[in-house]
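Q: Hi! First time asking for a complex rather than a single chain. Here are the components, and I think there are four in total. Is that enough to go on?
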Amino acid sequence: MSLARISKTLGLSITTVSRALGGYSDVASATRARVLAEAERINYHPNENARRLRRGRAGAIGMVLPSAPGDFGDPFFLRLLATIGPRLSAANIDLLVTAARPGAEEMRAYRQMVEGRKVDGILLARTRRKDDRIAYLLDHAMPFVAHGCSNEKRPFAYVDVDGETAFRTATERLLALGHRRIGLINAPQIYTFAHHREAGWHGALWAAQLPPGPVIRAEPTEENGFVAASDMLRSAEPPTAILCATDRLAVGALHASAGRLAIIGYDNLPVATYTDPPLTTIAQPIEQAAARMVEMLLALIDGADVAGMQEVLQAELIQRASDRPAPVEQVATQPGEHPSHVEKDTLRP
Amino acid sequence: MSLARISKTLGLSITTVSRALGGYSDVASATRARVLAEAERINYHPNENARRLRRGRAGAIGMVLPSAPGDFGDPFFLRLLATIGPRLSAANIDLLVTAARPGAEEMRAYRQMVEGRKVDGILLARTRRKDDRIAYLLDHAMPFVAHGCSNEKRPFAYVDVDGETAFRTATERLLALGHRRIGLINAPQIYTFAHHREAGWHGALWAAQLPPGPVIRAEPTEENGFVAASDMLRSAEPPTAILCATDRLAVGALHASAGRLAIIGYDNLPVATYTDPPLTTIAQPIEQAAARMVEMLLALIDGADVAGMQEVLQAELIQRASDRPAPVEQVATQPGEHPSHVEKDTLRP
DNA sequence: TAGACTACCGCAAACGTTTTGGACGTCAAC
DNA sequence: GTTGACGTCCAAAACGTTTGCGGTAGTCTA
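A: Yes, that's all I need. Here is the structure of the assembled complex.
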């Protein structure tokens, strides 16, 4: 099933068959019709390896999924893939997926893809403030689009979601409910998103002239949420509300709180509706971000410049029931003091 | 960065360079060493498209992820990818991933992969009793391995988990706790796994000479679990315990039961530890199954026969707290009657 | 010395497609 | 009639790698 077969059947050269299928204007329309009909008749599909060899393109986009043990409760990557996959298929580009643990293993996976010339571009997510992946890809002039930004000084393409505003809004909501001591269970600060979410929480408290509540940072698993909330509740001055950087942390925290805390999460996981009480959370437009990322990357591969390819989408507060009002005795507390706040890092690896 | 470059540098033919790198015995070991050293010095990577063109292989394995809206809460596919990805990378085989909704869209994705000769094999999961995908792949002599089996009469390679035994065991556990009316919230019967799990539940009740409790079948989302359990609790003879085909169904059911039901799920999702009460569930060895699937598929692509490539792994009951004893008044019920049981199909699409 | 054998290397073709540059026939203008 | 433009088609080379087969030189044995 090759061009040669069609050319023999129709008495045309391989060149003409190729040009007819490829849309070249210097093929007579009658000839083109014959070629198209025959190609369809035999269900011709070009050999992509031959094409890509000739064109000097890999014909694929790479994605390395994180595969540390705590990563499997999060549908984020599945939702990315579900949006990205069909869009690339439609453009006849392969989505090449592998998985690696962050660190040396992950960098090896990127090197294999990039230096092995297996991909024309890379999509990556869950960026870190200092992200070795981004630096590597920039060093190698490999087109890529990130979900999330980073401290990298060189310009690169990204789609981010405004976690700072989302967390400011969520904190303001808790303040409006009367809470005056609001804790934060955050992901580690190496992640850009964690940094932004914390800035939003801190900014809202600062604007309200309130001291920050306790902060605990941990990999975003249910277990770490449970442990962190338990710790906070046992402290001398427990918060009455906690903001969680992810819904998974929130599910664990909700379990530990046993009705004693108002809790807001982030991600709007399907399970969030079925916690007790149903979780107030923040929904991010993953599908929209993913679609935009694909567009950007295809443009970059075609030679576009990254200038202007930095977009920030807005998240949305989803109000359910876990953001209860503050206990009555705390509503009387006067804002206006700035004592130092208690801060713990990384409970679990 | 090609063989030609190395051949020029070393004053050898391209043939000899290729053979040296390819391990041919008719190259002098001193020559081979020179070639390997130079290849490493310039970080040579072969052009896979050229290789694959010459070898007549696609060099990739395909996977089509389900992307119906309810599919994103389930880490099953992420866990599959996390095991499959690195193993294929190690074998220098690309994992080509796309996503499609079950039905015409999905079949189109398979056709694109198979008829476009983009893959040398396929891995698929969540098999149906009558599975168009399996029939199609068999029709096209495309090597594939399924996670789960099907009613297809022709032999094919699969790795399954014994859901029937798992559900029999779980039902027996509920019986041992004194439950005599045990409902089932199952996935639709088109799925092989749903059929097997129901058979296990039914078999254990039959062996105990008890009538089956109510059965509701629905796509396995939290919402459907909630609705089904609510329906069962409102019935004239509510069950005292419910077996759920998946943890996601169980989370929803747990929420609806408000402490009135014993519930056992399946999947051991991370979130299951943090439900209230913590969910008793069944853990399946996804990683083991995925690794075995990769081995089988690579063997099939190398020409092995599917005979003997049908394996069934065992799941494990994880006891937590959601399988409470039956209310005292029901423990007195005598086993031995077989009234007809109430059965509803598909609450939500 | 001649013939057989083997180690080692290289020529050429193959894989399927794309693209460059040119050939050829026809038509219109001069 | 000649020249130039244009439509249409095709030969050849390119892409990078692999592999079958053959050539050559060296060694060994009769």
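A: The mean pLDDT of chain A is 91. Let me know if you'd like any chain examined more closely.
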